[in-house]
Write a structure and sequence with these properties.
The complex is a heterodimer of chains A (131) and B (242). Chain A is mainly alpha-helical. Chain A folds into two domains: 2-48; 57-121, no CATH class. Helix content of chain A is 85%, strand content 0%. Chain A is built from five helices and no strands. Chain B has seven helices and two strands. In chain B, strands 1-2 form a two-stranded antiparallel sheet. Chain B is globular. Classes of the chains: A mainly alpha (131), B mainly alpha (242). The interface between A and B is medium-sized, with 32 and 31 residues.
């Protein structure tokens, strides 16, 4: 609740005409209402997650570890195939396992919601690609 | 005492055609689903009875999961996704009956299911979008010199999907069933160890009861996770790159 009052101070200093003041008052009340609603929503969400946290934490652990391990395994398989096809004996495996490590990290970040999926960025940024 | 991994042994029942206990339980799972759903839908009442409302809830649950992830166009995959969900869920739950074989604890089975999902994504993606589907591997907004690396990493990441999909289901079921068996074994070996130590044997029994409840949760949860991830991957095939 500290944020809207601060913003109110700034608005009060900046607004000069009465219309501006009216608008800033309405904005302030809207801000306060949004704050209240989101705080309530967060509380509900938190209590819901806390009740099932033990079981879902184990599920989360299994999920994340599988994401990471599978990236490394996929890299290893690709490296092995590359080595067999092009007779580049250790190098294909070395390079592909490192790339698989990167892919596993990417999987991990996406599964944890810390990195955006690639498709999301594309939707915002590439109107010319998109036909 | 029985070994905790003895329950996962595949034993031939009719060796001539390679029919094993695993095949028997796969057929059994399919039979339970078909018979159960036919029984539930036999009346087709406007006001559903108990069995029918369970079947309708399962249908609505999978349908809402699918439309949440892929939108309305994804509904053409509904029979596929519903079959997968029902198969994994029923197989997991049948595995919880003592003495039954858990087919989802075999990585061959889960990997076959995951390959089926990814194969559907790749085939449908190319059929519906042609080479535009490959845009999935080249995210925009990446500097030019970095693009080859990112593309290779994205391809490896895509190829790791069937592995992670199968590994997760397999590892959950395997670990849960081994843990149950190990705690069950503790009860027996503590109980026969001597008079003083036998008093401790109810402790692992309590743990085994708790683990059984957890395993039922995991059985449902993993079927759900498998379905949700299937829907997310199908979304890539339905809408690649936007």
């Amino acid at each position: 609740m500290a944020d809207p009052t601060k913003r109110n101070d700034e608005n009060g200093r900046e607004s000069t005409s009465s219309g501006d003041a009216d608008l800033s008052a309405r904005l302030k009340s809207l801000d306060a209402r949004i704050e209240k609603a989101s705080a309530q929503h967060g509380e509900i969400q938190e209590s819901r997650t806390r009740s099932s946290s033990d079981a879902s934490a184990m599920g989360q652990a299994f999920r994340l570890s599988a994401e990471f391990v599978s990236g490394v395994i996929a890299g290893g398989i690709i490296g092995y195939i590359v080595d067999r096809l092009f007779a580049t004996s250790p190098w294909g495996l070395v390079v592909c396992i490192i790339l698989g490590f990167c892919a596993g990290m990417l999987n991990l970040l996406r599964a944890a919601g810390l990195a955006k999926p690639a498709r999301y960025e594309q939707r915002q940024k590439a109107p010319k690609d998109d036909n | 005492m029985a070994s905790p991994i003895e329950q996962f042994q595949v034993k031939p029942i009719i060796p001539a055609i390679g029919f094993t206990n695993s095949s028997l339980f796969m057929l059994g799972t399919a039979a339970v689903i078909v018979v159960g759903l036919l029984f539930a839908a036999r009346k087709r009442a406007l006001v559903p009875g108990r069995a029918q409302s369970v079947a309708e809830m399962l249908h609505d649950f999978v349908a809402s999961t699918l439309t949440d992830a892929t939108g309305r166009e994804g509904m053409k995959f509904f029979p596929f996704v519903f079959s997968l969900f029902m198969f994994v869920l029923t197989a997991n739950l049948l595995g919880m009956i003592p003495g039954f074989f858990t087919i989802t604890s075999q990585i061959v089975v889960t990997f076959a299911l995951a390959i089926l999902v990814i194969g559907t994504v790749i085939v449908y993606g190319f059929v519906a979008h042609g080479f535009h589907f490959l845009g999935l591997f080249a995210p925009s907004g990446v500097p030019g010199w970095l693009l080859p690396f990112i593309t290779v990493i994205e391809i490896i990441s895509f190829l790791s999907r069937p592995i992670s999909l199968s590994l997760r289901l397999f590892a959950n079921m395997l670990a849960g069933h081994i843990a149950l068996k190990v705690f069950g074994g503790f009860v027996v070996s503590l109980g026969t160890a001597g008079i003083g130590i036998a008093l401790l044997s109810p402790l692992p029994l309590v743990m085994a009861v708790g683990l059984t409840a957890l395993e039922f949760l995991v059985a449902g949860l993993q079927a759900y996770v498998f379905t949700v991830l299937t829907c997310i991957y199908l979304n890539d095939a339905v809408h690649p790159g936007h």
